[in-house]
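Structure (tokenized):
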């Protein structure tokens, strides 16, 4: 992959996050200004299945991933995101290749990076044929060397010393927290226990690389989030106590569903547990980003869809830029807004 301009066709896949990380790392290592073009080919003129909305959400997510990987420094890397093929009907690998090559020629791009699990038409594995078509166009094509997800994921993973140190620190800190006092005996036994825990879990946890700067930032933001969550729990307790003690018992139970704007396991689990800890709401099910929540009152339902907790969780894991993204209510409003009717010809 050469520096300058790099084109990366994208779609939902199990390896997309790692492909984005690889593209950023290679661009930074190149040591010269590089523009990463992430493009989403629309397979059906952006009509079927609200594909344009899905594409916009995915491209927004990629921009945040890139900012995460750059760790708040630009390093000469810029990002362009867009959809392509909106005016065409893309079906075969040749159709997708023509659209991608047209974009590359229009923007003077000679390098193309492919996600190894990129399936432009959905579940059908077109990547080998698509890659063959693209190589025939004269582009410098590279497949990102990232691990593919297997039917049975490997239990043991390659890990660096950073993972070992982080596990040791977490285990040692937790031991001292339970012990209560840092006596010599507790320090020695805690250190020995932490070594055993870190050695046992070193290769079966912490799948990503340890980045101290990012971890410190997330830890600091988590320290701000904890009192905020406690405040929300206290307010919700008062509201539910009022409902329970009211003579008419004004409850209005309802199960609602929405797609949360979080993109990995730990943030989704944090949001789900925060919702459950807040009286009046209970997380019934979480499937990827899709949340099913039982709400006890109209007020708790409105507070949930107002998105304060979701924004706070995004702030913890993705930073301030992610906290400003639309709330569930705002996303629902944008989805329900009717498209403007074309003006009548005179």
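Design, position by position:
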């Amino acid at each position: 992959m050469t520096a300058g301009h790099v084109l990366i066709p994208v779609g939902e896949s199990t390896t997309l996050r790692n492909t984005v990380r690889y593209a950023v790392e290679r661009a930074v290592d190149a040591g010269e200004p590089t523009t990463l073009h992430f493009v989403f080919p629309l397979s059906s003129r952006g009509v079927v299945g609200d594909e344009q909305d899905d594409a916009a959400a995915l491209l927004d997510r990629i921009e945040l991933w890139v900012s995460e990987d750059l760790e708040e420094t630009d390093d000469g890397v810029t990002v362009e995101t867009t959809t392509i093929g909106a005016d065409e009907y893309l079906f075969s690998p040749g159709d997708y290749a023509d659209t991608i090559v047209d974009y590359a020629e229009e923007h003077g791009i000679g390098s193309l990076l492919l996600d190894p699990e990129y399936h432009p038409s959905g579940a059908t594995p077109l990547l080998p044929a698509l890659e063959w078509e693209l190589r025939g166009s004269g582009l410098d094509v590279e497949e990102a060397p990232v691990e593919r997800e297997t039917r049975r994921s490997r239990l043991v993973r390659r890990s660096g010393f950073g993972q070992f140190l982080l596990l040791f620190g977490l285990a040692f800190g937790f031991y001292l927290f339970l012990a209560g006092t840092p006596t010599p005996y507790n320090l020695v036994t805690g250190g020995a226990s932490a070594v055993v825990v870190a050695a046992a879990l070193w290769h079966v946890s912490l799948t990503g690389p340890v980045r101290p700067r990012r971890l410190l930032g997330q830890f600091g933001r988590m320290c701000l989030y904890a009192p905020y969550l406690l405040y929300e729990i206290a307010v919700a307790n008062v509201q539910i106590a009022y409902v329970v003690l009211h003579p008419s018992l004004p409850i209005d139970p309802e199960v609602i569903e929405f797609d949360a704007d979080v993109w990995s396991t730990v943030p989704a689990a944090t949001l789900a547990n925060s919702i459950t800890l807040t009286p009046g709401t209970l997380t019934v099910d979480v499937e990827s980003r899709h949340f099913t929540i039982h709400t006890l009152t109209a007020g708790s339902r409105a507070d949930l869809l107002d998105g304060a907790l979701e924004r706070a969780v995004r702030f913890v894991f993705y930073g301030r830029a992610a906290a400003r993204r639309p709330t569930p209510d705002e996303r629902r409003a944008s989805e329900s807004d009717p498209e403007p009717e074309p003006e009548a010809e005179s």
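Reviewer-requested clarification: The first helix runs from residue 16 to 30. The beta strands are 5-9, 34-41, 77-84, 111-114, 140-143, 254-259, 281-287, 290-295.
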